[in-house]
Amino acid sequence: MISLKSEVLAYIKQQCPQGITLTKNRKGLYVKVSKMINGKEKNLNQTINMGLDLSMSVADMKSAFETTLQLALTTKRQFKAQIENPNFTSFHTPKAKGVGTMGSVYAMMFTKEWGQCTGKQQDQVKSFFKDLEEFFGADKRLSEFMEEDIDNFKDWVAKKIMERPKNMTGTVSHNSINKRLGVLRSIMKYALSKRLLSNDQLINPDARVKNMGIVDLPRGESKRKPAFTFAEQETLLAVIAKSGVQKDWDMWAWCFDTGMRHDGELDGFTIDNVDFSRKTITFWRPKTKSWSVEMVLTPRMSEILGRRRKEAQLRNDRKVFPSTSGSRRSNWDKYIRMCNFNKNFTPYTTRHTYITRLAEEDVNMKVVMELAGHSCIETTMTYYTKSSSKLLHNAMLKISNGYSDTKNDSIVKENEDSMIGHNSKKALK
Asked: Which range among 42-46, 91-95, 217-221 shows the weakest confidence by mean pLDDT?
């Protein structure tokens, strides 16, 4: 037991609210939240060390207590939310067997979580973590994160992005901030799986809340991405063919036929992902961290692989379509200009077109979800609920034709009425 000065002891007892008390050894604060269930008291509790030392002054002891009290209040709020959850039935959840810090868990999980991503994607993750580390510090305990910390980080990183020399517009998108929060959530999830963090230590311990209390900034409605008509798709491929660069034609035709994401899927696709005996492909999807379904080769895909196979086998990385995001974008823009197409068509258009075609052909939504590699059916549903330009055009034609028919009927009726009037005049004469 630590001997506290009467002034400090009185201050602590005066400031502690119900449910938070000084421990018997006077070294920490004891947090307890209870509830009667089926006639029995169930409780969640935790002791938080204040780190007091006899050499500390009265002011330093009070300061240490106030810092610990803020953690205790957050823990109490988390316990209360957890214990009042009607779906919360287990009050003996696994306790953390170690202390997880942000930096140590990140280092532990990086290879397993992002090791199969492209070099560019790994560099992005490292960049996002660097911002987290700069603000929170690598030694920040995951159990000590509070809602206020996340809000302060959002403000700080927004200002940092806006003040970058390369940021000519001085603006920042919510998506840029949310990606950094996503890395922090991944760190939290991994720590939970390794019992370096317990669920009751999360900002929001409610199991139904997937973000664990690390809430993203709202996403604005993005501009609708256009899909090619079949004629536009073939026009683009014809222009590429005319340019005489076979590897460009092979890459873009492959994109239209598979709907692959370019980053991680197309540029990570190797000749080993092809089963030539079964005439199928299976490839890794870094975004969803899963393998694709087995996709059957179309005749055009088989021709492309026939041309690319030997070169891919000679490469150390065995990639079929070696390229970078920048080179693909430059290549795409060149052909879009040659076709005199709208600049709204981006390289992503190949994937959007692929999925839109499947939806237009009334392919089962679950099948489309698997072929596209969507992690949830809601993403796939948007291709069914948002009509393509083809469907919108046909709808407008129907309206136009219906209006014309109605107009013609009106003209006929008007003429008939006029003739009736004319004949009646003759009859009256």
From this structure: 91-95
What is the SS3 assignment for 284?
Answer: strand
Q: What is the DSSP string of 38-82?
A: TTEEEEEEEEEE----TTS-HHHHHHHHHHHHHHHHHHHHHHHHH
- Label residue 85 by pLDDT band (50, 70, 90): low
Give, as one character, the DSSP assignment of residue 408.
H
In percent, the amount of the chain with pLDDT more than 90 equals: 38
- Residue ranges of alpha helices (H) inside 194-315 are 230-243, 246-258, 299-314
Task: Among 125-134, 237-246, 413-422, name the one with the lowest average pLDDT.
Answer: 413-422
Other C-beta atoms lying within 10 Å of the C-beta of residue 115: 10
283 vs 24, which has greater pLDDT? 283
Contacts with 42 (C-beta within 8 Å, 6 or more apart), sequence order: 34, 35, 36, 83, 91
* Alpha carbon distances (Å) from 172 to 185, 299, 326: 21, 45, 21
Q: Up-side HSE of residue 331: CA atoms within 13 Å toward CB?
A: 18
Q: How far apart are CA 287 and CA 374, in angstroms?
A: 9
Residue 244 Cα to chain centre, angstroms: 39
Task: Look up residue 266 and give its DSSP letter.
Answer: I
Tokens standing for residue 373 = 């590699």
pTM over 0.70: no
Residues in the chain: 429
Higher pLDDT, 104 or 167: 104
How far is the C-alpha of 243 from the C-alpha of 335, rounded, in Å? 9
Cα angle, residue 333 at apex, residues 331 and 336 outer, rounded to 5°: 115
